[in-house]
Amino acid sequence: MKNIDLSFGIKEKIREVKLENLSIGGNSARSFMKENNNSAKPLLAIEIPYILDNTYPEILKKEWGCDSCEQMLEKAQNIGADIISIKFNLSEDNVDDKLEGVKEFLKTVLSKVKTPLILRGANNDPVDFKLLPLLAENAPKQCIISFAQETTYEQIVPVVAKHGHIIVLRSPIDINLAKELNILSIDKGIEPEKILIDPDMGGLGYGLDYGYSIIEKVKQAAFDGDTMLNMPVIAFIGEESYRAKEAKSDTFSSQWGDYEKRAAMWEIAGASAMVSAGADVVVLWNPKSIKAMKSVFESEVK
Amino acid sequence: MNLTGMQIFKYLPGAKKAEGTNCKKCGCPTCMAYALKLAKKQADIEKCPHIPAELKEKFAESSKVQQHEIKLSQTLITGGENVMYRHDKTFVHPTVAAIELDSDDKDFDKKLDKIAAYEIERIGEKFKIDAIYLTGQNIETATKKIEAKNIAVISQNSPFKIIKGSDINELETLSKEAIFLGEKDIILEYDFKNLPKAVEQLTLIRRAAILRRHEPLTYPVMVRFPKDLDSLEIVAAASVLICRYANIIVLPEFDEATVSTLFTLRQNIYTNPQKPLQVEAKVYEFNEPDKNAPILLTTNFALTYFAVAGELEALPFGSYLVVTPSDGMSVLTAWSADKFTAELVARSVKNYGLLEKVNTRKIIIPGLLAHMQEELQEAMPEWQIVTGTIEACQIPEFLKQS
Lengths: 302, 402
What we know:
The structure holds 2 protein chains of 2 kinds. Chain A is an alpha/beta fold. Chain A has helices spanning 58-64, 69-76, 95-108, 125-138, 153-162, 175-187, 208-223, 237-241, 245-248, 259-277, 287-297, and strands at 16-19, 22-25, 34-35, 38-39, 43-49, 83-87, 117-120, 144-148, 166-170, 195-198, 234-235, 281-284. Chain A has one domain: Dihydropteroate synthase-like (TIM Barrel, Alpha-Beta Barrel), CATH 3.20.20. Chain A has 11 helices and 12 strands. In chain A, the strands form 3 sheets. Chain A has an 8-stranded parallel sheet with strand order 10-9-8-7-6-5-12-11. In chain A, strand 3 (34-35) and strand 4 (38-39) form a beta hairpin. In chain A, helix 3 runs parallel beside helix 4, helix 4 packs parallel to helix 5 (153-162) and helix 10 packs across helix 11 (287-297). Chain A starts with 15 loop residues before the first strand and ends in a 5-residue tail after the last helix. The mean pLDDT of chain A is 94. Chain B is of the alpha/beta class. Chain B has helices at 5-9, 13-16, 31-39, 53-63, 108-117, 139-148, 168-180, 195-210, 231-243, 256-270, 302-313, 331-336, 342-351, 354-357, 373-379, 395-401, and strands spanning 69-71, 77-79, 96-102, 120-122, 125-127, 131-135, 152-154, 161-165, 186-191, 221-224, 248-251, 283-286, 295-299, 319-324, 362-365, 384-387. The model of chain B has no long low-confidence stretch (mean pLDDT 92). Classes of the chains: A alpha/beta, B alpha/beta. At the A-B interface, helix 7, helix 10 and helix 11 of A face helix 7, helix 8, helix 9, helix 10 and helix 11 of B.
């Protein structure tokens, strides 16, 4: 095979985003490949809700065996996740009453966490307008703040930039819109080295293929040298996976297999596909996924 | 890449108005006609006396196969891929899902029966286990039993040659030897050690096939997972390899949850990105609706349909869902492409004969199309058009309130 060139379309590196001791992106190789004297290692994040209520899947409550966010946070630090994400799942009804508590939580609880953090809004614009600036101002250390989108970036990006955090920019499964939002956000004062691209996506069986192909296209644009699309990609696949009824309902026929197993597998399959496509960070909900994926993805070093 | 008619035409005398333009010696009326036939491989390149050596070389290169198709059974084909990424065109033959079985296993019949009985359906597609990877001493008898169940068999007795190797160089060498000995149908079995290495080797093999058309590696690749991985680890590894270039995956044991999950991923990855999944446009009934059951309406984009259908199925009462013929586009896409016009909606509802069938006079349209309400109301005066929810998951709440 010596005289056959098997290199394939990598001219430039993915932009490197630094968070504490973590390097996100910075590679000039595709996932799992060793090429161009480089390799790409996907990062695995675990996500927990700030308020553990009945919207959180029963099967995961059972898996975690915890009664509160604090307990989950304790556990999350010991399962080998590279990053911990906290979803501040506030609503328009309770956001005003809860903001003080969030501030206190950042100060007293999160300040003790050594693992790098993602602080995530509610994905509800009126809530996020109040919540995300507060998270950026009161975060105990440099964090990833998630996310700003077309309707919120003008307000959110400057605050996140001012406090030196990294911002996740979400655009709706469209490479051109992703690029546009990057450019607009840089205009609002964030450095390109502090952006993660969230191309949005559907979970396994629910349009995963669209997000998958967008990630592949974003990566190709980056390797071709597009400096406005070469930021690392983050995929919030846990949330999408546990929207699927295959992962949260045991009403399927026995042909679909053991429910507890399937619920875990649904997330693992979706996340593994995202990593294959080139996602630099995948955010998961089930600790079992972290364990299985770490064991398989890092098996070479064993 | 295969040469197009225009790329070929550039080299012919007709393109340069040179001597020999449209000389008809090739049997075609014009150089252009000949070029188009060459592109479709319906003409012989030697028939034109004016073709430059450069084109002949390019043509020979582009005529080489990228990946051979191998028949695993009368109905099951693997290989034949021709792009690196699904978004470049589409992947062709979905990853073959095989289960490993030992022909000497005392529970062989029981295990085979269980595998043969497995079938699930998702978005109009049925999934069954495609093949058995057979080991042990009792292969002949076992093969007959498996084939009787219409499942393909992969074994040392198969009519194709299985070559085993632990990296691209080893597989290339062994494949070259086999080709030299006259083998036509080859499967490259990659000896799985760990996932990162497997992805790397399979990617290099696929590049050698698709991009370089390097004959010894232009055959389907099979990966057999070791027994020491647990089922979640298998799902992680197999998912990556469905995306990254395994034509056949062999699972060490049969487990419903594992295969259901992997089939769903396979369906996602092998969906033609240029042709969205669609369902038949008609009226669907859920939970035996009576004459007063609510009527909802949406497009025939499969994902939209299944999101809505899932909610309607779960309701404690019956309902109708009118699905419009919108070329498999989602609600807003269909609207902006004129595949969801008031006229088309009115016509569909009329053709389905709903007016005669039910007493209900309300039709609930997708929340994303609230702006169409008036227009639809005008086109369908016999109905009351109601704007529904934006998300499918809000439907139960919406119906309970109204």
